[in-house]
Amino acid sequence: MSDDPLRPLVERYLREVADALSDLLPAQRREILDDLRTHIHDALAAVPDPDEATVRSILDRLGTPDELAREARERLGIVGSAPEPETARRPGLFETIAVVATAIVWPIGLVLVWLSESWQTRDKLVASALPLLGLALVVLWVTPIRVDSRVESYELATPVTYSPGAEPSVAPPVGTPTVLATPPSHPRTTVERANWASLLGIAILLGGSFGLPFASALYLAFQLRRPKTSALHTGGTSSFTAAGPSPRHVP
Amino acid sequence: MSQMRRGALEYCVLALLARREYYGFELVQELSRVDALLTSEGTIYPLLSRLRREGLVETEWRTSPAGPPRKYYRLTPAGRAALAAFRQQWIAFRQAVDGLLDSLEGETK
């Protein structure tokens, strides 16, 4: 065969095309590569005495690997076909403001989130649940502190008032020190407990009022981004309408 | 302009196949006779692949006198219908654009 010394040139071209088509389905890529190989074979056969210049001209006319890849993506609707990014990029300024507002003043942010159509109801529910959970934690934390202190004051009050009178059988000199002994130990533990409690309280207050709304905003931002990539795939396959100005099926 | 060319190209392929069956390289040669229709010859293959997937054309492998077997493309009934619809719309569209351009040209002269 006269085209044997020209083979490396062809093979290199096809390899480059294969690389450029790497995001196509394997079957589609193989089909296009086979078609190109047959085309090159036919084009060479049409010339009586092909040389390197002939091959280069044939490959030139076929187009650069990038050109072919772009066309293949648009025609076969894999990724990055023309109309898709526009529809996928629809979440814009409004959604950005909604996300930022959720992180800073979540009640306002969540109203904006619910007004937007860029999130699914499930996402909106999750995003709303997080700051509300934070609020619930804060409220639950703040109320028990009062209950606790009230309970403790009762505990302090009970032994002092009742134990001497309720247990008269116990000797008063023994009873008094125990009554005296309990109050000093009691405040000490409550002070320690109060230290831990205040640390935990700060954590819960900060987490509840800032951390969880921030997590909610992060979640919303993540959910905004995710449909963009999936839309490119599902929408991409049916996006061939971009190529033709008119419907191609007639009932 | 390139979008218009790409859109028209697929119906030119269907129109050629309405005449007879072609294999890839033959189609490219025919289309290359029309100026500016096929800027990169290789781009015809993704298009043919899609037309086949859409059921507008079908393919058949046939042995060639020399070399590997060739894939011939043939128009399906759906392809024929699509071509007929395009032809109708194209004529109306072309007349509308021509009419507008002509009337504006008469105005400016």
Automatic annotation (TrEMBL), chain A:
It comes from the Bacteria. Residues 230-251 are annotated as: Disordered. The keyword Lyase does not apply. Residues 231-241 have a biased composition (Polar residues). The keyword Membrane applies. Pfam families: HAAS. Keywords: Membrane, Transmembrane, Transmembrane helix. Signal peptide: none annotated. The chain crosses the membrane at residues 93-113, 125-143, 196-222. This is DUF1700 domain-containing protein.
UniProtKB/TrEMBL annotation, chain B:
This is PadR family transcriptional regulator. Transmembrane segments: none annotated. Residues 13-84 form the Transcription regulator PadR N-terminal domain. Pfam families: PadR. Gene3D superfamilies: Winged helix-like DNA-binding domain superfamily/Winged helix DNA-binding domain (1.10.10.10). InterPro entries: Metal_resp_DNA-bind_regulator, Tscrpt_reg_PadR_N, WH-like_DNA-bd_sf, WH_DNA-bd_sf.
